[in-house]
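Replying to the earlier thread about multi-chain prediction with a worked example.

Input:
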Amino acid sequence: MNQLIASVKIALRALKVNRTRSALTMLGIVIGVAAVIAMVGVGTGATARIQAQIQSIGSNLIIVLPGSLSSNGVRLGSGAVATLTEDDAKAIAAECPSVSAVAPSVRGGVQVVYGSNNWATTVQGVTPDYMTIRDYTMLSGLFFTNQDVDAAAKVAVLGETVVQNLFGNSDPTGQVAIIKNVPFTVVGVLTPKGQSPSGQDQDDIILMPISAAKQKVLGTNKANARAVSTLMVQASGPAAMDQAQQEMEALLRERHRILDGQEDDFSIRNLTEVFAAQESSAQVMSILLGAIASVSLIVGGIGIMNIMLVSVTERTREIGLRQAVGAKTRDILSQFLVEAVTLSLLGGIIGIVTGLAASALISHFAQWSTQVSLLSILMAFVFSALVGVFFGYYPARKAAYLDPIEALRYE
Amino acid sequence: MAAVIEIKDLVKDYILGDVPVHVLKNISLKVTRGDFVAIMGPSGSGKSTLMNILGCLDKPTSGTYELDGISVGQLNRDELAEIRNKKIGFVFQQFNLLARTSALENVELPLMYTDTPAAARHDRAAKALFSVGLAGREAHQPSQLSGGQQQRVAIARALINNPRIILADEPTGAVDSKTSIEILAIFQRLNREEGITMIVVTHDPDVATYANRNIHFKDGIVQKDEVLAHPRDAQRDLESLSAEPVAELALV
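Result:
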């Protein structure tokens, strides 16, 4: 340890002799490390934002939509026919072991009035399970209950955006809002979720019992009063997603009496999978940014190698003298290696500070969220040391294996 | 007296292009402990090559070299470095001090390659500087010292590991005549009082008169090997020099 401190002192003195040269050499590493820290920070920030959005839609979520129907060769789009019913939802909940909760839902656009304010928003008729499936929490009040669903009670839970537009800053709980001319009592406000991964405002919504939504606001489907527009399904765990999909498909095909070879009249979508693709593309971006930044780190390393080679040539006589008075191969090797690593580590430390400052500036001025993890700082530190070892080794080895006689005679 | 250096049938060849050059041709030589040897000869006579081999900086093509009872011919790079560190002190014509490094640290340098603790290193280096008359100059850098002082720092560096022999290659080549006598006086004192074997390569016949053995080289062989019964005493010459200030002024 003392030996090492002594070597570092000697290295620092040698570097001080050529201040400008050492500083310029270090600059290469400084820029490289700072670029890596800042770029990985930007990438990680983007990934984290997407992850937060994915979390906001709920975990282990599968959506079942009514399928397309083809009649006389004309294929209608997904959801064109009401093939899913509340009974399907109950059957799935009862018979699919990999499913932990099912919430049928219907939705439609409405105009809502409170006092002199009015607002166009989306009404979603759901069951209380919807709250667990979507990971909703209440900002104030309570979610409606299964009794409310059975009784088609005229109660509603509002999203934050709706509250802002109708009630301003006053607490809406207990107030009565007119939804499509029907008075509904507000029983609770949802904790805001922000944007969905696809960019929709998840807080611009009114939730109410599915029964009330159908009977009093949106109207029932004329062909099938039990029809719903989607089923939100939560699998019992991330590993059970595929199993749950298969179970539901089999069950729904059986319930809908679909023969082998016929197309499904519903479609099952794994939302997590869709958004995971977005997340992985953000990760790829972050890796790419990091990789590009690493190139400058390598260029910085080449700069170190270059200067160390010059230094070895300049100090040939010194090397010869050290050899003459008893320096062994490894003594000379470690002297020059320590010098290179000192140079690169100093550059690395300055680079880390610069990188932190740069990512703070990026998030301040460009409004991008950046996240510099401790890991990336440690990695930058270790990598700059490795750059020093890697690019310092060749010059150091050259110095260590100089012929002492020629080195002493060198002019 | 025991031989500190014993070489037998020493041959050194270099290949220059395709032509082999025989630099040393079958040299056998013994140097007894406590000797003060001056090696002389024109350039190209092989004296520098011999010096490099004696200093364990180079290996002979054939023949044997025993230094203080150790056969050094078969040792590898690092083993030779160890021998140089422990048994040999070097003094060069151009001093070869590290620039921007204090006299004390320059003297300490050989100890950096041993496991001597820092405090002991400083202590021994300060003593070595004292013994060459440079007490109080420990913090001076080479650029702040005269040529003679720099050479004395180099001698202190050569002394620091209590070597068996000191090899000096033209030690007076870069200093004026009075300073060279000062340096020779130090050599004679180390030789007589500490019993260190001195080997000095020089082309200056004057310098050789202070040694008690002169070896003349020519064309890779020993041409003449003579023992001086009454070498000159550098200390006495120095005193007589300072007794004649007029003569010294005339030199300036």
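Chain B touches chain A at residues 52, 55, 57-58, 77-78, 81-82, 84-86, 90, 92, 96, 98, 100, 109-110, 112-114, 118, 157, 161 (CB under 8 Å).

Feel free to reuse this layout for your own posts.
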